[in-house]
Amino acid sequence: PTDVKLDFYVESFGNIEEANLEFSVFMYFRQMWRDPRLADRVNQSVVLQRDQISYLWFPDTYCSNAKRSDLMSPDTEIHSSLTLEPDGSIFYSRSAHIVASCEMDLRDFPMDTQTCNLVFGSYGYTDNDIKLSWKSTKILIANKEMAQFSLGDCVLSSKTMEYVQGNYTLLSASFPMHRRIGYYAIQMYVPCTFLVMLSWIVFWMNPEETGNRLTVGITTILTIVFLLGYTNSTLPKVS
């Protein structure tokens, strides 16, 4: 089988949407392999771009948990390049924007830590045809700054899945993300604390002023309900 090395460089992360259980990432996806049929065809390194790449064979790698991805789009529609060495070694790089599903456990929200994965594999070739593996043990990330999360170090792993057609190797890149509580502390905890303290005013009001006491209580409840509704609108409907 052809040994294919995978690697990618993360340019930036996009939105992490809890309501849709998904996250987006923009990267430069790179693959390296050697094609003996192309050995000694060139005397020096040759760089191919766009429609020239379609004349060569390259792996059909895709992201298995992607909801939307241009990873398998034609090279004429994205930025890509392929470098061919005299010994038949090939370095193939292309830009990719992936929106992938992310299984989230929101029971500790907003003090939770989520782990989102990108899983890559071959769509049509089994392990008898190509063997996928990571080129290195570390993924470079250009910008780790995120609005609501602190990004940890990427963890790489691989596993073999058995199907009727044969065995397929899946490569996984896991990104641990710890939620920053500052936004929710200011938008939820602090207002709710002041509202609860405000509701205590009824204990110092004249017991005969039933209307005023009732107004303060109802206003407090409606305000808290509004704050909870605003927060829940950004979250999935889970029990």
From TrEMBL:
Ranges that cross the membrane: 181-205, 211-230
Gene Ontology BP terms: chloride transmembrane transport
InterPro entries: GABAA/Glycine_rcpt (IPR006028), Neur_chan_lig-bd (IPR006202), Neur_chan_lig-bd_sf (IPR036734), Neur_channel (IPR006201), Neuro-gated_channel_TM_sf (IPR036719), Neuro_actylchol_rec (IPR038050), Neurotrans-gated_channel_TM (IPR006029), Neurotransmitter_ion_chnl_CS (IPR018000)
PROSITE patterns assigned to the protein according to its UniProt record, in alphabetical order: NEUROTR_ION_CHANNEL
Neurotransmitter-gated ion-channel ligand-binding domain residues: 1-152
Boundaries of every Neurotransmitter-gated ion-channel transmembrane domain copy: 188-239
Membrane topology: Multi-pass membrane protein
Keywords annotated in UniProt: Cell membrane, Ion channel, Ion transport, Membrane, Signal, Transmembrane, Transmembrane helix, Transport
Location within or outside the cell: Cell membrane; Membrane
A GO term, aspect molecular function: transmembrane signaling receptor activity
Keyword Protein biosynthesis included in the entry's annotation: no
Cellular compartments per GO CC: plasma membrane; postsynapse
Keyword Transit peptide applies: no
Family as reported in the entry's similarity comment: Belongs to the ligand-gated ion channel (TC 1.A.9) family.
Protein name: Neurotransmitter-gated ion-channel ligand-binding domain-containing protein
Natural source organism: Nematostella vectensis (Starlet sea anemone)
